[in-house]
Structures
1.
Amino acid sequence: MSSKLIVFGLLLFTMFSNPWSTSIEDQLTLYVSKQNKAVDQIYLEKFKTFADQNETYPVIRYIEADGAPEGIAVTPSIVFQNNHGHSLYYGRYRNFSRMKTFVRKSRLKHSQYSITPKKELLVWKDQRATITAPLKVTPMTGDLPSGFDQNSFSQSANVCFAKGMKHFELLPSFDQPKTNRAFYIDIHPHLSKDKTLTLKAEIYSQFNCIRSVYHSMREPLISGKWKNRRQLLETAAELLEAEILNVIKQSADGDDFVTIPVTTKTGNLQLDIAASVVKRNTTPLSETIPRNWKIKQTANSRVPLGAFSFLSPLDGYAGEIKQLAGNFSLNENKGLNDAEGMFSVAIKDITMGEKSFDHEVHYKMLDIKQFPSSTFKFNRVTGGSDQLRLYREEQCTVEGTFTMKGIDIPISVPATMELRLDAEGQYLLHTVATFSLNLFDDFKVKGPDGPSPSRDVLEFVLKFDLENND
């Protein structure tokens, strides 16, 4: 582990190590500056209402008065915390639908923090913040000149962009913290027969790789003679940097922000999150433990049945499983060894909290029309004691066949199961399981833009109760 990653982790630990005297199970903190003109009283009321509706305690911190933890570089920034840990919200602060998914997913699994090594990256260091502008040059189309090399042209574009931009510089290597802000620039070059170079462009927020925050696709950003290509690229850089600055200053979607001055004090800003007390019922209605079980569907639960996310630093692309179906049968001795079962999820019950993301996942990535569901069929269960006992955790491994998009792959899922009682004395089988899927290698599904394996591997956490199905 690099020393920079260790230091970064210590900063984030310090960020939450100084409590207030107030105790509450969940909290949602908004760090804001008086310079955030868009975060007005109307927004603050919406934020408070959102927190109340999602059973979290809202905390609003103005950095001018209270300071800001070192791990916070821009405002507005939003942090969820409970007694299990904390997560920074990586999304648009105006998108309450996605924020809801973030809160629910964080209750099940907190986000990880990471530093990603980058090469040849456009970087702007502004106060506490680091803003990056990864540049992607798509393959040149049209009448290519003799000896044209795409890699050389792309490298030249990076150099020209750094020269044309006022704030960004091209760094040969850079350790990119997850808390930085990024705007992804796509350049689409075309060369006509008369040697006119046309540059079209798109800019994407780091929070949405599907819909651009700026584009010049119908009309070119700039055009000119091929021999003047370096000057054209420098001018394109100047124009696109201005568009990035416009988004930072004002964004109806919520991509705007204000960087926090390096002179801002580090405040003691966190609540003391008390561990929740679980009351156990020890009087069952029946002494007979069920052998057959089904997944208990819980309406309006604070915690989803399951959550998923790509690997850090792309774990801001996360979502939840709203409904899960399935059955499970213990062995003849009411134990886990050689238990049988199958679980399934309808693709429509997978959400990332944003319509454009859900459409991309349902229709383009997973082809919901042809493959409306995915299944996991048990082949073998090993581990656990001979018979389940009340309130004793059992560790087991479930080997089985996972089917998605009509493709079968073998997977092994570690799980923890515990026999419990609900308030009425009915048996429940509490289940927690984790597993991961390599979307690209196994299913040829491409994830969001980013480094491998982060963009390829999807991690799942399941936490649900099974109820009597005898």
Note: Residues 259 and 345 are 42 Å apart (CA to CA).
2.
Amino acid sequence: MGIIIQGACRCADNLTAHYRHFLLFGGSKAAQARYTQTGNSTCYVSAIFTDMEVVPGASDSHMSLYPVGLREWIAKALQCAPSEMDIELIVGDASPRQYYRVTSLKGLATLNIGGEAREMPSFIAMVSPASENNEAFLRVGAQMARAGVRTPAVWAQSLRRGWFLLEDFGDQQLLPALASYPESAAALYQKAFDALVCQISLPCEQASLPRYDSCRLKTEMDVFPEWFLSGLLGIQLDERLRQRCAMLTGYLISAFAEQPTVWVHRDFHSRNLMLLEENELGVIDFQDAVLGPITYDPVSLLKDCYIRWPRSQQLVWLDSYLLQLRSAGVAAPSVDVPAPSAEQASRLQALATRLKEVSPAQFQRWFDLTGLQRHLRVLGVFSRLHLRDQKSTYLADLPLVAEYVREALALTAGSHSSVAEFRDWFESDLMSVISDQPWYEAIDPEGWVR
């Protein structure tokens, strides 16, 4: 049980922008809290006194905080003294997980990955609360790795405390590489598609994964009116609006059901794909994997919330992926991709046979309707991160997400009356409210911010 403390404190300015840690005056431990800036570097907080400790000798501007006992636990796993390593808090993600880079001060440490010994200069310590699906993180990561997906090796684990010592994938996300070197995008996306082919070769039967069924989809769609419309925009949710959302949800459920069911990462985008040494692509943040529609992960990748490509380019890559799936299990795998097992090849061949009956136009329709569901949900999720979790940097991503929704509505309005009606309301009523928001910025439909 934590002790509630209020008072002034000095900010540890090198930590994440969304959750700050604080060193309380006169204390030997620390508090994790939301804060209000009152001038200069002084904040007034209501803090929960938690079991966190400050790195000995750290300055106020470069302190690193971590749970009590974590250093000793890591040292035991690495078979070194606690003083023989450095621990640095690194920027995390949209979840409450915290990540620390652990560097051995005595040289390289040996990590056994898939039976192969590798010398590593650093590791990642992940501190993850029970709410973050930790058992699934271990189970899904191991299954994906066996299928040929490059997931971080787990060096040590304590499920009870939510502590994990992981292989360090470094800091090179796919996103900055795409933004800085767009000419290399095709090759980089091919690596991502190769990883997806490995992933969907996994069996759905007895997979111990939740299904993207109608109940789950309805729950996700409810995030849009609750957090984006009502929470962020202050729109009253009358019965007509609720019916409009419910009708669209019902149609999207049927669109999901039409598609082949495969393993779905759920956030297969450029911030969760890492560029590794030896020309490899690493995949992270996979613990929320589900069994769902085959176009879900391609939507996350090609209609990325953090980078936008022209529609024409999206479709070139999407059509290429469909051709790859149609030949999966038959043609030789691409360079640097492990050959599938006999069981994987059999599953891929069955999927390829089914997809040969699906036209590119139909695959694109699935892609757009699946994207419509995903991005309506993301509007709600990003709003919730701002309102509930004080992670307000996600507001800057809302204009692009809203543009994806508008594009998908325009492309699929003729497919069903619920889509057409929802689009009419979105354009005539909602866009005027969105356009007045301080975070809004018009998006060029051909691909880049105006």
Note: The radius of gyration is 23 Å.
3.
Amino acid sequence: MSVLFRSSNRASAARVSRTARLIWTGLIWTGLTWTVLAWSSPSQAQRSYRVRQGDSLHRIAARFNTTVRDLLAENNLRSTTIRPGSRLRIPRRGRGGRRSNIHVVRKGETLSRVAARYRTTIGRLKRSNRLKSNHIWVSQRLRIPGRENPIRVRRAPLTEPQETARDFAKSLGLGSVKTAHWLLSKPPKPEWIAAARVPPDTRDDATSIAKKPEGSLSVVSPAEHEPPPAPTPGTFQLPLQIGHMLRGWGSGAGGYHLAVDIYAPPGTPVHASETGIVAYSGHGVSGYGWFVMLVHPSGHVTAYAHNRQNLVVAGERVERGQVIAKLGNTGLSAGPHLHFMLIFDGRHCDPAPLFRPKLRQKNGDAVKVDRAVWEAEAGKPPVRCLARSARPHPHRAALARQKARREKARRRRARARRQKR
């Protein structure tokens, strides 16, 4: 009897053991299944994507709930051009789809490589993280300056005049990212200047651009109730009625900053500096965030970058002093400000002497510049003007030098191998 009792106990114990193993195996497989399903979600976990025919960075960014700037930084791309068949790394997103401003150091990374990846400087990285040296270690968390989450603005539906304006812009070839890049380095086309000269009331019904209806809402600041000064030909109205200058034309390393940065609180109305036509309104130009470009009857181009929200569409005709955007902190920006550019014949000019009224410093004093007037008959510009290529951005110059050093080292190694043979 004792032998039978022991054998029955061993059999029952074996059955319990097999049952426990089956239960644990099922739990493990269930956990793995849920893990695979979670990582298969395109919005959070998919880490790579193979580019298909007809894809663009804007379309891929919208599909994976990220931004074009994050895709460029994650894949070390210098332009938005991609080829079918190439594979892109999709950046991770934080909770709730928010972009993280923290970088976790990986093996082999240096502070200079991290700075180049996020298009910032080593000095700004050290100041943001209170680093005393360039030494970093694996798994260290670095705060990236200027990578605050962009303010996502829900677009209001276009009015009927804006729909007509957009169709008119398409007929002229305005409104695309290609147009914006053209105006940043080349003079505007004659038909664009001609469209800026024609008032909307004199156009025919097919291409007329009506003004904003009386019932529409607009952003009005207390300063707007004051009558603006009478416009002087050859000058430009100050785009912000409050605020102070942060950086002037020709500042920065090597004088690369060919624009004027003006600080004001977020949401401050941005005014058109002169009458003209909207050549571009969007956020497709890398680094500038929400961006507006105007072509004026004189052939000048003014640009307004890092906006919080654009209030005009391509093809609209705007008057001097009209509100066209709200000031913000989008794109490659370290804080809320307006990045204002004045472009003529493809060259970036200093707008400070042409502003009416003058720019103000933080203490309230006027910026000390000699006032100038841009006369149409003048052959030489009355202000400083330079091509964008004459003052390259320091990050691009550093990348070019690094590429030259690598090419020189590669040739030296090739020459050494040939000598050994």
Note: The chain has three domains: 48-143, 160-215+232-388, 391-421.
4.
Amino acid sequence: MRAPPRMIRALGWCWLVMGSAAMVFLALAVALGEAAAARGLGLTGVIGVFIGAVIVVSTRGADRPARAPAALRLALLGWITCPLLAAPSLAPLAGGLQEGVFEAYSAMTTTGASLADPDTAPRSLVLWRAALQWLGGFASLVLAVTVFAALDQRGAGIRRSTLLTVHDNNLFTNMGRTSRRLGGLYALLTLLGVVLLMVTGAELFDALCLAMSGISTGGMSPRGEPLAAWLPVPGILALALICLIGAWNFALIYEMITRRRLSRSASDLRAMLALCLMTGVVAGLAGGAAWTGPVSALEALFAVTTSGFQLGEGGPILPPAVLILLALLGGSAVSTAGGIKMPRVILLVRRAGEELSHLAHPSAAVFTRFAGRKASDEALVSVWVYALAFPLALGIGTAVLGACGLDFETAWQVAGASLSNAGPLAQVDYAAMSGGAWIAASAIMVLGRLEVLAAAAAIFVLLKGE
């Protein structure tokens, strides 16, 4: 099966950007005298720059339209190959090449599960790992606004925005424009996050890592201890705000900044905040201590944004199952968060309420509205299919991880945290898992990043062709 030149060119740009970024951190590693880190970063940089540049130059002038199958292949192959390219650079951090592969997949899919101890790791690699999360979050945004928005045009349109007009007959048309628009906004919000964290008590290095990890909802911390052990309370609240921004709709944020208006309501943001507040209230009433409610609300916020940052030394107040279920709900559609996505959940809840209303008033006209439009039955069916795909994937992932030697509880927690791209919520020692379990968990991370159905469609296209 011959791959379209436009798809190969886009993949080449991904590798070129990865390699160029690694070269920047190579210079940092050399300046800090971190030889092992420099070797790994150099290998990633040379491979990425060389192969990426060759592909970009050799496909110059390629203008053949690329439709949905090519875009799906790009999404899948990008999430498979880019972490493999980054793996040699993270091998010194994680303790070996196989460990580096797991660490790279976890970072770039913004899952946040880690095998490394950041307290003893080279500083250049800790910062590089945060940058990989940042790049993975940016890639998620670009794919959401271009590829997935086009594929969702016949559905509920949860990614529809005024950011750009998507051409479904050539899905690569606006990737460059989208990257520039979202890239500027993404970088600006990250920079503001760094400043906010420093103002609220974080050191510069920690602020850089946390801002990149927070805006990408990656969840990897620059220190091995929980946040409460070293970050002041104002800093934790600032990080929570950054994660919330990362999990909200970037297309709406872009509209707010450039047009000073919103084309649709912020119902998904309100739903996330309401979930956190309700969780905190229930936990506070059940726990008794005065601080139980606020801490539980913060834990819920880090869960529903799928960042998964850990607050206290003794572990979270909320059970892992509750946190993982919150993470599976996910953030907004055009965001760096994982999960089913809150707009789909809102649609299903609204539809359920209207069906109950129809039972009480059989003659009433029942229809569901989303973003000011009536949602068709076809759109609602697509939402249901997405919602049902996640439990199915969770069950299969649990079974596969169980076959790799994990007990049922651990397998379910790892599968749920990986599928929702919220690795720290599993509350397990990933380093104690087998190599097979690392591979399975990495595959589930990619599946979750592609929202299950898109991954299944991409695999089908790779096997069967267009």
Note: Residues 127 and 205 are 8 Å apart (CA to CA).
